[in-house]
Write a structure and sequence with these properties.
Strand order of the largest sheet: 2-1-6-5-4-3
Number of domains: 2
GO molecular function: DNA binding; sigma factor activity
Structural class: alpha+beta
Keywords: DNA-binding, Sigma factor, Transcription, Transcription regulation
Distance between the termini: 38 Å
Largest sheet: 6 strands, mixed
Family: Belongs to the sigma-70 factor family. ECF subfamily.
GO biological process, one term: DNA-templated transcription initiation
Radius of gyration: 21 Å
Subunit structure: Interacts transiently with the RNA polymerase catalytic core formed by RpoA, RpoB, RpoC and RpoZ (2 alpha, 1 beta, 1 beta' and 1 omega subunit) to form the RNA polymerase holoenzyme that can initiate transcription.
Number of helices: 13
Helix content: 40-55%
């Protein structure tokens, strides 16, 4: 491999990581896809092979299609996953690297955990099209070339994906200062165990996801409804288990978040999804599966 070929891959690596992560939701699978993309790239850049006219287009095409091929194995893994599955959280320091990539199509903000959960309900092709078009700004024709499909088919996939996402997610994000303030208040109220105060913070249809990877004493399915969620969070056992934990604040997937630690190691990441109109909490995402906290530091 020439130094130029290595630099070309490095120049586009953050863009590739961002696209694939948004398609798959896990760092491990994303890194595996990037490794396969690198192998394909290195094979094309050996002496005597035809030159690649557009390295970025070639790399994105290989990465996207490799990620799509990996979806079947991921789906099988999810079938045996115990409890709710949430995407692997990324600190801003990691996800913001996509904003430094030398490409004008890279999005300016990370996809939130709440958005990634919605993207999980799309088909793999719909998700790929949504990520490429709505997040990274690729035209339908270019996406068609990446996926080997006609522009009309891509446009139809994009329409279905967009309608599905917009039906489940508002078009406006919450102000980060408000989200940080509500997060701090939520944790203080939960620690105090005041049921009425906690209910005042929650939207009537709030959903609580706890991804522990099958740990004991954790909900095995999402909990829905303000009363159920509030009573769970103010349960004496739940409160007692959080007394000795440290809490720091950071930015995870573009949203203010609480990073919880135990004995100096990451224990969980908590992200709230807040309705910008009512300022009520409509989603609580708690990732406590240690295998998913590799990128999180305290």
């Amino acid at each position: 491999m020439s130094d130029a070929a290595t630099r070309e891959f490095a120049d586009h690596r953050e863009l590739l990581f961002s696209i694939v992560y948004d398609m798959l939701g896990t760092v491990t699978d994303t890194e595996d896809v990037l490794q396969d993309t690198w192998l394909a790239w290195s094979g094309r850049r050996r002496p005597g092979t035809a030159p690649v006219d557009n390295p970025r287009a070639y790399l994105v095409r290989i990465a996207v299609n490799t990620a799509l091929a990996r979806q079947e194995a991921i789906a099988r893994r999810r079938e045996t996953y115990i409890g709710p599955w949430l995407p692997e959280p990324l600190l801003t320091g990691v996800s913001d690297a996509r904003a430094d990539a030398a490409d004008e199509t890279v999005r300016t903000e990370s996809v939130s955990l709440a958005m990634l959960v919605v993207l999980e309900s799309l088909t793999p092709l719909e998700r790929a099209v949504f990520v490429l078009h709505n997040i990274f700004g690729y035209p339908h024709a270019d996406i068609g070339e990446i996926l080997g499909r006609g522009t009309a088919a891509v446009r139809q996939l994009a329409h279905r994906a967009r309608e599905h996402v917009h039906a489940r997610r508002p078009r406006h994000r919450t102000d980060p200062r408000l989200q940080r303030a509500v997060t701090e208040k939520f944790l203080a109220v939960q620690a105090g165990g005041d049921l009425a105060e906690l209910l005042a913070l929650l939207a009537p249809d709030v959903t609580f996801w706890t991804d522990t990877g099958g740990a004991k004493h954790a909900a095995r399915r999402p909990i829905q409804g303000a009363d159920k969620v509030a009573r769970l969070l103010t349960n004496p056992t739940m409160r007692r288990n959080t007394l000795d934990l440290g809490i720091a604040y950071g930015t995870v997937n573009g949203d203010p978040a609480a990073v919880v630690s135990a004995y100096g190691a990451p224990f969980a990441v908590l992200v709230l999804d807040i309705d910008p109109g009512t300022e009520k909490i409509r989603g609580i995402y708690a990732v406590a599966n240690r295998a998913k906290l590799g990128t999180i530091g305290t």
